[in-house]
Amino acid sequence: MRKDLFTSVYPKDNRTGGYVVDVSLDGYGDLFNAWDRAPLKRRDLNPDLNNFMEEATEEIPMKFPIVVLLHLPRGSRIGWKEEKSRTGWKNYYRFQKHLVSKEIRESNGRIVVYVIVAMLFLFLAYFFQPWEARGLVYTITIQGMVVGGWVFLWEAFSMAFFKNRTLYRHRRRYHRLMETEIRFVYDE
Fold first, then answer.
1. Are 23 and 72 in contact (CB under 8 A)?
2. Please, which pLDDT band fits residue 75 given cuts at 50, 70 and 90?
3. β-strand pairing of 19-24 with 181-187
4. In b/e form, how buried is each residue of 51-85, taking b as 16+ CB within 10 angstroms?
5. Which of 31, 39, 129, 165 is the most buried (most CB within 10 A)?
6. What pLDDT does 157 receive?
7. In Å, how far from its chain's centre is CA 164?
């Protein structure tokens, strides 16, 4: 059923075998954030367009390429703006991918630290496990190390298997959008 849904929304591109995402624009500037005054090749994408593209990449399975058709008014073709717009598109998603990759590296570093701290706490708790009752403070300290060790271990586990999974998915999406073929179509 899902295949039927996305194939009814996104037409198939005969040349690439991928699926087409149509975007209507009034001008080249609509691609980019109106508040960003940087040159076209370094500007941020329009936030609404970015959200639209992220939703489209979620709907179209990863195994299919995406072709973006940017529809502009007839007679508005400016070759150098087309090329700068393509470059700006790729640069934007390259930078987004870089930011997510950086977040993954930082997260992986925290995971290693959490596992080391967890093992240290659990080892100390095991090593100092009382053979006989040695007092309330001692027992509370040992139990605190056990609980702390498991909490750090759980945090490492949740980061590795939940948070990082989402980050890896975002990185794949940004890579896909960075490699997307951009075509300009001039309509009436």
1. no
2. confident
3. unpaired
4. eebeebbeebeeebebbbbbebeeeeeeeebbebb
5. 31
6. 96
7. 10
